[in-house]
Specification:
The protein is of the alpha+beta class. Helix content is about 35%, strand content about 25%. The chain contains nine helices and eleven strands. Strand 2 and strand 3 form a beta hairpin. The N and C termini lie far apart (about 50 Å).
């Protein structure tokens, strides 16, 4: 690898570190000096560097993240005051929030809530369709609950349980991803090429995760972000191609599927459109993700995958 590519990879890794920090601190008063320190760049040049790497200004990116998060929360938490959501997303002035929201979405937050259905927003979701009433058998176990739905080939099992905090090594992609099996194969390959020689993969044990950071019904395709990742020890260090982040999924609704490359959207739709509205749970703000136990998917065959949605009781 030439020095030019190596230097660019270093810049990308630093920018991803800043984006992770922004994701975790959207409600805070984020400053140029603070974020430049996270990236280890001079504050006098950081805004220009961020723009050159992402195509957005630093504070334009922060504003977009806050508005899109607020729009998502307004959809899924109909009982929550819009002003409270605005404050939780980093807006200190309700009037300024309403004005910015209208400029971005061409409608007020209240009109957005009326227009958008509750519970929308799976990472590969399509527009909401007709919902069927599901029949649940609920089993209660120490530490988790299990829903058994349907019969025969249409049966599904959904577990709701606490998942442990993780340190993840990841490779990130920004842009369209839906239905692109070759893209995912390339991302998994990059991750395995880095983690394998470092003995960070235990064959048959180490799971792989795909985190979906954005809201696909809100965020333009070219700005969607995903992280292909796997758990690593806490003391693992990032390098120029691979980032390291902490991930706290909390309580998750976990549904196992066996999917071919073209079947993922239907599986996500089932979780968000069929099970979730009748479950008594609502999504949290943590990213939804796919968990592959314990190997990455292959582009040409069906793969076992757990679709995991961080949730909390209504």
């Amino acid at each position: 690898m030439g020095n030019g590519q190596s230097n660019q990879d270093s810049y990308i890794q630093r920018i991803n570190r800043v984006i992770d920090h922004i994701d975790q601190h959207l409600a805070d008063d984020l400053t140029l000096s603070e974020l430049a320190d996270v990236a280890a760049f001079s504050k006098f040049h950081f805004n220009r560097i961020f723009h050159s790497m992402t195509g957005e200004t630093l504070f334009g990116f922060i504003q977009r993240q806050r508005l899109q998060k607020a729009a998502y929360l307004i959809c899924i938490h109909h009982e929550r005051e819009i002003t409270d959501i605005a404050m939780a997303c980093g807006f200190s002035n309700p009037s300024a929030f309403t004005r910015s929201f209208r400029e971005y979405f061409n409608m007020t937050p209240t009109a957005w809530r009326r227009k958008k259905p509750a519970q929308d927003g799976g990472p590969q979701a399509s527009p909401m369709g007709r919902k069927e009433l599901l029949c649940f058998d609920v089993e209660y176990h120490p530490g988790f609950q299990k829903w058994l739905t349907g019969k025969g080939t249409e049966s599904r099992t959904v577990e709701v349980r606490l998942m442990e905090d993780m340190t993840l090594a990841y490779v990130r992609h920004t842009g369209p991803y839906k239905g692109d099996a070759e893209l995912f194969s390339r991302l998994f390959g990059t991750l395995c090429t880095w983690t394998g020689p470092r003995n960070l993969i235990v064959t048959g044990v180490t799971p792989f995760l795909v985190l979906y950071h954005e809201y696909p019904d809100i965020t333009p395709d070219e700005q969607l972000r995903i992280s292909v990742s796997l758990p690593v020890p806490e003391n693992t260090s990032a390098d120029k191609t691979i980032g390291i982040m902490k991930f706290s999924p909390g309580i998750c609704a976990i549904t196992r599927f066996e999917l071919a490359p073209g079947e993922y959207q239907g599986a996500w739709n089932w979780v968000f459109e069929q099970w979730l509205p009748q479950s008594g749970y609502t999504p949290t703000e943590a990213p939804a993700f796919e968990l592959y136990p314990p190997s990455p998917p292959l582009a040409s065959v069906k793969t076992v995958v757990d679709i995991c949605v961080p949730v909390k009781p209504l």
